[in-house]
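Changelog-adjacent note: as of this version, every example in the card shows the full chain rather than a window. The one below runs 114 residues end to end.
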Amino acid sequence: MEAEQSRKRRRYSLELKAQILAECEVPGVSVAKVALAHGINANIVHGWRKLARCSEPAVVRQEFVPVAVAPSEPPCSDDRGIELELRRGAMAIKLLWPTSAAAALAVFTRELLR
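Full-length structure tokens:
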């Protein structure tokens, strides 16, 4: 039995690869037809295309994006506060509490109604 001769892989120049890849980028052109025209298996050309896509550095442009900012309205200067009327049985309480201390009013009311 004779030993099989090993097939040598064909080597393609970078110029040929670049030419074939450029031909494949033309809209409407079939990669298989381009490969066949050059006597190359289409799978090899597809592999080259994949390598070319993966090896190309992603171009990231850093730019400022324009943003439209609506003018903010100043806080209302007519702060009447929080009016609260509590009734419990015969007892009635009316409170006028500053809006800026709303959290304190919540604590006060909770303690009062215990």
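Structural remarks: The two ends are 102 Å apart (CA to CA).
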